[in-house]
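Work through what follows:
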Amino acid sequence: MKTTVVLKFQVLAALIFLLAASTTALRAQTYTVLYNFGNVHCDPLNPQSSGIIAQGRDGDLYSSTGTFGSGCNSGGAAFKITPKGKMTLLHSFGSQNGDQGGPLSGVTLGTDGDFWGTSIGGDFGGNVWKMTASGKVTDFNVLTGVNGTEPTAPPVQGMDGNFYGTTTEGGNTKICTYGFGGCGVIYRITPSGKFKVIWTFDQTNGANPDSPLVLGTDGNFYGTTNHGGTVGKAFENAGVIFRVTPAGKYTVLYVFCTLKGCHDGANPVGGLVQGTDGNFYGTTEYGGASTILPQGVTFKVTPGGKLTVLNSFCTLASCKDGSNPFGGLVQATDGNLYGTTLGGGANNKGTIFQVTPKGKFTIVHNFQDTTGSLLGEFPEVTLIQNTNGILYGDTMNGGTSGRHQGVFYSLDMGLKPFISMVAPYGAVGNTVEILGQGLKAATAVSFNGTAATTFTAVSDTYLTAVVPSGTTPGVVTVTIPTGVLTSNRAFRVLPGVTSFSPISGPVGTQVTITGTNLTGATKVTFGGVKAPTFTVDSDTQITATVPTGALTGRIQVTTPHGTATSPTDFTVTL
């Protein structure tokens, strides 16, 4: 049973709230309630942070709600919704199904087509799980004590194929002083479920992350913590921005509340997004330069840690420009960033806003408009742009159900369809997954102008293509009868090792390594042991000497573009 309420409006300049002077009106936009949570038995209820929404290979939108009472077992639910609003319950969490409840995380899509998420687990510490598109869940019950507890965000896939995530609590329970059971951890989990903590938060360098990590174009992960971050600063509870490598090398990039009065923001809840300019963008729940009530900011931070505040919330009377953003930002194909605020706006029920990378701010939608809360209120979840060009999100409350348990909505800004890569990186010869629409009729695929000779349109919304020889970094395009679809992100060409000769030998053997994109190599290892001597002969060849102490295992080549691993082992002989 789907209840659809449609609100169409043309936003005029006189109705737009701006933080900075502007005379340019937005293009027409349409806000539509697609589904009302709680009208059907076993429905998902009250979507909360982080609640990440992912687009699947079928073009539908997948997520989870962790509210106890959701689903058929009252332990939360995973679901999917079509772009037109048809909802399907995929899995009900709870002890009846042998898994832990409270899947607040939402989901992220892996290259295997499965969705990854987490559950906070109530008193049980939480766990990581993966789910097929049909709703079959595999649980990895690993989160207790030093391994972290209460993960509120889903893990994300790294360039090595493993998944990386955070927990809000657990880890070192003796340091954090905010009333939490530990500062949290950063972990790595393999697709088969092998788990390892790679960093334990310690308050000084950040504590209690609520948001998911984001994979940067450099292969490292970036994120925020809600608390912690002394690092020589007087304010100890405002959170940090950090970078962590897949190996666990951790660096604090910025400490919030460094500026007087916390004008630079405090306590980020939402995650980061890397823009097309290479910088990262995000929000904080508190802080800012508002003289009424500091209720958060949007910000830009460079990979090196230089932070710029784009706008402060609650600078208008009654916070009509929004307050307290919980979700992060999404950069749409018009180049602008879109987000939501939990409070403020014309009705004090939250807003959807647009902010440019230079800080021009515009309210796009005020929740609980003239028809009341039936249109949703109090959004906490980060928006997603589907490859049909439309933005989607959900609210924690409002809607037509008896208890107003939230809505799933769309926001059409008039943006054109595009394609999106599940993983926007790969070596020559790798298969890349592409999401879109109209793909079954594709006649050509191109990587920055280099035609892919091998591609397969699996369905109208899912296509695979083999990265062709000669590919350089840039956008990917798919040609269909109605035009050319362009990727929303640039493709990054990784180094690759295709073969080596000889395949075995003792220490001191000269080995010729053949591959692609090897220029600038900084390290070669044999079974994890670094070779002190090697020569980059060309972009496709390296000559290296088997080092003392080398072990039988894979050869790895590290370049500024990433690390390449040989497909087979090199055998060290006596």
Observations:
- The chain has no helices and 48 strands.
